[in-house]
Amino acid sequence: MGFYAITGGTTGIGAATRKLLQEQGHTVINIDIKGGDITADLAIKAERQRAIAELQQKAAEGLDCFISCAGVGPTEPGDRIMSLNYFAAKELTEAAFPLLAKKGGNALVVSSNSANMAGLNTEFVAIMCDEDDEAKACQAAKGLEGLAKQQAYQGSKFAIAKWVRRISGKWAARGVRINAIAPGATMTPLLEKGLADPNFTTGMRTYPIPTQYGKADNFLKPEQIAQCMLFMISPAADCLNGTVLYADGGTDAVLRTERF
Amino acid sequence: MHILEKYVNHFNSNDSKVFASTFADDCIFTDSAPTKAGMDPMYVAGKECVDMIFNMYFSNMPMKATLVAVKDNTLDYIISYPGFDMPCRGTLLEEKDGKIVRYSVAFRED
Predict the structure, then answer these.
(1) B66 CA: distance to closest CA in chain A (Å)
(2) Which of these, A152, A260, A150, A258, lies nearest to A203 by C-alpha position?
(3) Which residues of chain A register pLDDT less than 70?
(4) Is residue A259 part of a domain?
(5) Domain annotation covers residue A228
(6) How many beta-carbon contacts under 8 Å exist across A and B?
(7) Cα(A85)–Cα(A110) distance, rounded to whole angstroms?
(8) Domain CATH number, residue B82
(9) Is the reported ipTM for this assembly greater than 0.85?
């Protein structure tokens, strides 16, 4: 059986993925702010370093897969969004590389289908992807209020997918696949917070999800995303690398039909 | 009433189901005008997708179509939403049983 590590495995998509892996008999190390095998607030740099050190100790023999799932939505403060969704995701996944290389494993990073929608703040993306400056990114996003915080969320999710694509060739050539998944509107605590926020509720409720059209249930379920993730990290997907898979019921296809 | 006038009236209801009722089940709606506002062009296939996509638009920002002229199969109009007035030209490419089958919108340069 395999040895896996996941961030954000306590709730939402991460919890559903962890559960499926455990049901298959795998060992899963969960790194999360609450209820983890390694407990850490990954938005804080020092906590991140401690979590990495603990992971290196617990997975000294190597990892079959590392899944970066921890993230927050656009209702959270902008600086926290930047730190957790991009810098923590990148730093922990990078730290997992030598562990993955030991076993010829693979990595999967959770992005979002909102990453490529209209309104992307390309300056934020450049600060993250090109300047790699966490302090500057946090400063830029700190003052955002209300709906404007979507820029931080969208930017961070675009940036992490871009990072995956950028390093995917090098990693695969060294025996470690890496991919990203871009879930659509999925009923998780992150979405619930958005639905409860007057700035985001209408937008989230009216996102077109073709597979849910005419159904009582407007949103996707974490288990549906987790099933896609299980495929992506499985040997059956051994030719997938640098892929951003839209697991969104068709939202991206109907809103960005002509661009892919 | 010309079907393109009906299109404008149904658009102005800001009700996606009413708007979608203007179209045939297997309609194709294309719109390149959003690219002028930095958005993606639209290719909408099927009445259900007209409903879904315009439900999102109408729910998030009130939109208004102001009719300028209807001539034969061409509709000149202005689409207005907060902060933007966009002159458009719609071309009815196919109609069947009083419903739009194929309709194409572009930014109106004149």
Answers:
(1) 25
(2) A150
(3) none
(4) no
(5) yes
(6) 42
(7) 9
(8) 3.10.450.50
(9) yes
